[in-house]
Design a protein that fits this description.
With 173 residues, the protein is α+β, with helices and mostly antiparallel strands. The protein contains three helices and seven strands, in the order H-H-E-E-E-E-E-E-E-H.
Length: 173
């Protein structure tokens, strides 16, 4: 017997919703999802390229800007700068966490977030890192506290921090 299967409730290919124009509600949501997906893919690509480059050339050594020059310790090398970074620090105490805006610096010794207040995290205090969503890097510190950093390229930043930690360990040996 040829023809449509009476038990198949799936609409014919020509009737499926994927072939119709996006509704007013679906259009922006789908465009946003595609835009987020493209930014994540670009971040992953930059992270992969940086990982390969750092294995061959090592981390970049930047000239400190005016703000970092005032904060920098002797023999501390700046490796990356992430502007417009939001930091939320969840402490192990009962103190409430706060969201702070500023510039994030990765150096050969520390992670510095300079804004209304200064947050310093020694590289050897970073225990674990994970990327969540499009712009969030979650960091677990060895004292049990957590940091959440919202930056433009969290996957790239994770690679940069890992490379800086590795270089610091190698220097300490």
């Amino acid at each position: 017997m040829s023809g449509p299967d009476p038990l198949d409730n799936e609409p014919a290919r020509s009737d499926r919703s994927s072939d119709r124009a996006l509704s007013a509600d679906e259009g922006p949501a789908l465009r946003d999802a595609l835009s987020i997906s493209a930014r994540i893919a670009e971040d992953e690509l930059q992270a992969d390229e940086a990982r390969d480059r750092y294995q061959i050339e090592g981390l970049p050594m930047l000239e400190p800007d005016e703000q970092l020059a005032a904060l920098r310790q002797p023999d501390e090398t700046p490796h990356s700068v992430h502007g417009s970074a939001l930091l939320e620090r969840d402490t192990a105490s009962d103190e409430a966490s706060r969201l702070l805006g500023g510039t994030l610096y990765l150096t050969s010794r520390r992670l510095l977030h300079a804004g209304a207040e200064l947050t310093e995290v020694p590289l050897n205090a970073i225990e674990e890192m994970a990327v969540a969503l499009e712009r969030l890097l979650l960091i677990r510190l060895n004292d049990g506290s957590d940091l959440a950093l919202e930056v433009e390229h969290p996957r790239l930043l994770r690679v940069q921090i890992a490379a800086a930690k590795g270089a610091a360990r190698a220097t300490a040996r």
